[in-house]
Amino acid sequence: MTKDILILAIESSCDETAAAVVRNGREVLSNIIFSQIELHKLYGGVVPEIASRKHIEKMNQVIEEALATAGVTLEEIDAIGVTYGPGLVGALLVGVAEAKAISFAAKKPLVGVHHIEGHVSANYIDNQDLKPPFLCLIVSGGHSHLVLVKDYGEYEIIGRTRDDAAGEAFDKVARAIGLGYPGGPKIDKLSKEGNKYAIAFPRAHIEGAPYDFSFSGLKSAVLNHLNSCEMKKEEVNRADVAASFQEAVIDALVSKTMLAAKDYHMKQVAIAGGVAANSSLLEAMAEACRKHGYKFYHPSKILCTDNAAMIGAAAYFEYIKGVRAGLDLNAVPNLKIGER
Ligand code: KG4
Ligand code: ZN
Fold first, then answer.
1. Which of 188, 305, 306, 335 to mutate to test the pocket of ligand 1 (most atoms within 8 A of CB)?
2. Nearest Cα to 160, choosing from 181, 139, 180?
3. Which atom in ligand 1 lies closest to the alpha carbon of residue 189?
4. What is the pLDDT of residues 91-109, one digit of tens each?
5. pLDDT tens per residue, range 61-86
6. How many angstroms separate the alpha carbon of residue 298 from the centre of ligand 2?
7. b/e map of 42-74 (b: 16 or more CB within 10 Å)?
8. Which domains does the chain have, with CATH numbers?
């Protein structure tokens, strides 16, 4: 029997202050998330300075709660995992400083985690049988990537967004039709009441880059539709706009993922990031994978949006490879995937 590895993980890259205890990279003993959404809602988006201040206020509390809920003492922890990029620099610094302080005081090794690699690793928690290689579609508020996960912690990006991230498009369109922040879950819900074929919004085709995404044209098409309704004094059917917009995003995400899986001979397809919580996207991706004979994996809803359990999973696979960060670990707001 090999010894269990317990990781205390910390996440503070955006507007969630989170800590978790994860055993052997796949088993969540605790997953504490303090969401700041209510605070930022007032401003229609995340205010970096407010996020940093709130992280400072809540950080110790979520860590203590994570250890207590897991029934684990700090002495029993094998390593501290922390998100050090990408994200808001002030927000990241709170988690990084905290992790370094604990690492130094409790004499525990430190592992720096890439936030997006954390999102991918959420799949290892909810799917105990999932092993690389697989294709992963990462769709969050800040990123849209198609990535080949060649091994644990080994990634090759084959597709990316040329402009807005998928989540960003959801948030902007939600604001335009008056749904407020964060837009993704609200569009998800309202779409169920609308007709997804009501408005034919465009799907971007990027010459020579079949796996790349672009959502800014779609966003402009939605704004044009709203303006044209206003000029013609026609009432906007918000549910139809939401459903038709969502369908255009899903169509692009699913078709490019299927093309990449075929071209790269991937038999397993996974999805990650906040937008992976979208119920219609999950249904469409599951159906496409079934049709093409691919095995489809996705994290549970709570592990799609920002959390520390996914950071604990990613940290574990780095830890067992011997990867360690020094006390000079710094926040890297624009950290690239696969970079150290
Ligand atoms: O991964 P995440 O929590 O934070 C980042 O790393 O960016 O993703 C947040 C994004 C937001 O844009 C939010 O609107 C979107 O994920 N989102 C959704 C849903 N839930 C969250 N988008 C579509 N449908 C959802 N159900
Ligand atoms: Zn995220």
1. 305
2. 139
3. 26
4. 999 999 999 999 999 999 9
5. 999 999 999 999 999 999 999 999 99
6. 15
7. eeeebbeebbbbbbbebbeebbeebbeebebee
8. 6-121+304-320 (3.30.420.40), 132-298 (3.30.420.40)
